[in-house]
Amino acid sequence: MVAAVRLTALGKPPKGSAAAAEEEVAERYSDVDTTAPNSSLSSAASSTGSLARCSSLSRLSFDCSPSAAVSCSAARHSVAGVVRPHRSGDVAWAAIRAASASAEPLGPKDFKLVRRIGGGDIGTVYLCRLRSSVTTTAAAAAAENPCLYAMKVVDRRAVAKKHKVERAAAEKRILRLLDHPFLPTLFADFDATPNFSCVVMEFCPGGDLHSLRHRMPSRRFPLPSAQFYAAEVLLALEYLHMMGIVYRDLKPENVLIRSDGHIMLTDFDLSLESTTSPALEDGEAETAGESDEPDMASVSCFPDNFLRFKRRRRRGAVAAAPPPPRFVAEPVSARSCSFVGTHEYVAPEVASGGAHGAAVDWWAYGVFLYELLYGRTPFAGATNEATLRNIVRRPLAFPSGSGSCGPADAAARDLIARLLTKDPAARLGSRRGAADVKTHPFFKNLNLALLRSSRPPVVPAAALHRSQSCKPPPKPAVTRFDLF
């Protein structure tokens, strides 16, 4: 039997039935604030109109309906059979594989919506879990299927009214490609009736970096914590650029915290799909500002002192071996004239209305790092127009008395200054992408190759996503725009 999506406005189920109980749960959480910590969309991305159009989705109900079998079966797909190598050991994958053991792919009937956890420009995000047998109680079902997932539901009718059908399709195409420890895992992908498209992804109970920053003293991260999160985001951007994807929406609200404390970059509806040609370049070619020492320590699995010891033993015997070649995969040919992004994070070439490429991600990365360290963005103005003028015209300035002035702080400021170069051709990362950024002294003491195995600065509590007391105040005057 194939499942169908049924809106409760079309008719009430009999009182006391399983459908009525499920509908009651969905209605109970219909007014949950869309700025919940785990929203996979920016809390500021939704306008009043878009939320009004999506409000009926908050009472979404998945039920089995024989009459809908014909309309739904032809439009359904699933990627549950494709196990991503980086996440293949997760218990969440084991539950998905067990649920999809039958020949029929996963669909709406296999998931139970728990509550609404977010809403944005092109969809609504629900907390969900796999269904158990119909006869089990809610407590037994939770014990049988403890894994929680995030389901993003897109109403094609609402998206079509905003002329963003291709944006939603592009995001789904990108999610199907990703296989990286710091990017979303797509567990299932299916359509529910002709009007709704659903993707099931990993649920991140730790909220986002914007929420976490507001819980820090002085609302900013200590330098080691900022260094850790910036390094994980850097590796995620490197992978995206290697796949020919220009992200175009980097900000703390789009960096979620998994249950193990590591990050997950999310929200790809503004991303630009392009092509890239990975290559190995001579490691001796140095960019401006790199140290004279070989950059092996920044990409090697061995600690610095080991490499120094090996070099001391060989000194005077043989000449030092040249540094290994660098892996470079940057979509340097990507070009777009779309005026998209979030005002405080857009690059000068976007703010001035010109064409842009992958260098916009490295500008946004500099703004992102600045905000983690200093608690605000560097060019914010009283209005969105003033912010755009500041981005184009105002020179970069660092707050006075913002902390220590040691070597680590100086390296952070140098990295930010190189990333926030207004000329995209001279911007750090514009030529060789992450290969240039990773060799900066700011990341000298981090082993990027083993970052996934390092302990994060904050490991969220299991019940953090249910707490409303940790919700930060809304970020003022940050809106996402989408003009052509």
UniProtKB/TrEMBL annotation:
It catalyses: L-seryl-[protein] + ATP = O-phospho-L-seryl-[protein] + ADP + H(+); L-threonyl-[protein] + ATP = O-phospho-L-threonyl-[protein] + ADP + H(+). It holds the Pfam family Pkinase. Residues 276-299 are annotated as: Disordered. The keyword ATP-binding applies. Keywords: ATP-binding, Kinase, Nucleotide-binding, Serine/threonine-protein kinase, Transferase. Its EC number is 2.7.11.1. It comes from the Eukaryota. One of its GO terms (molecular function) is protein serine/threonine kinase activity. Residues 281-295 have a biased composition (Acidic residues). The keyword Transferase applies. Residues 111-443 form the Protein kinase domain. InterPro entries: Prot_kinase_dom, Ser/Thr_kinase_AS. Belongs to the protein kinase superfamily. AGC Ser/Thr protein kinase family. This is non-specific serine/threonine protein kinase. It comes from Zizania palustris (Northern wild rice). The lineage of its organism: Eukaryota, Viridiplantae, Streptophyta, Embryophyta, Tracheophyta.
